[in-house]
């Protein structure tokens, strides 16, 4: 089986986090990246930290919205096509996150403003 070392990370043992250094694990000579408990990573499709904090999903969704917005701004599309393209690029990411975290009204309005300014 082939393993993509660039996508593989190690979460240090929670009991020994502060007292010992991260293990030096390697596959085919490449050292595996070790994450701190507060570092976010993607696991089974969602972003979170070792302590269960899923707020990193917010930034991922915002960044996808910004990228979609910038992509649409650089293309000469009709308003209807722009809205459709933005929905295809952004709404899927938001829909997935909505089941995992609670969004505040101001956060939702910020995302909506990005979508309506295309």
Characterization of this structure:
The chain has 118 residues and is of the alpha+beta class. The protein has two domains: 5-36, no CATH class; 56-116. The chain has helices at residues 56-73, 79-98, 105-116; strands spanning 9-11, 26-27, 30-31, 33-35, 41-43, 46-48. It has a two-stranded parallel ribbon with strand order 1-4. It has a two-stranded antiparallel ribbon with strand order 2-3. A two-stranded antiparallel sheet has the order 5-6. Helix 1 (56-73) runs antiparallel to helix 2 (79-98). The model has no long low-confidence stretch (mean pLDDT 75).
Give the beta-strand count: 6
Average pLDDT rating: 75
Task: Tell me the strand percentage band.
Answer: 5-15%
Poorly predicted runs: none
- Rough outline: elongated
Short description:
With 118 residues, this protein is an alpha+beta fold.
Brief descriptors of the model:
118 residues; alpha+beta; 2 domains; two-stranded parallel ribbon; two-stranded antiparallel ribbon; 42% helix
Topology summary:
Layout: E1 9-11, E2 26-27, E3 30-31, E4 33-35, E5 41-43, E6 46-48, H1 56-73, H2 79-98, H3 105-116
Parallel strand pairs: 1-4
Antiparallel strand pairs: 2-3, 5-6
Helix pairs in contact: 1-2
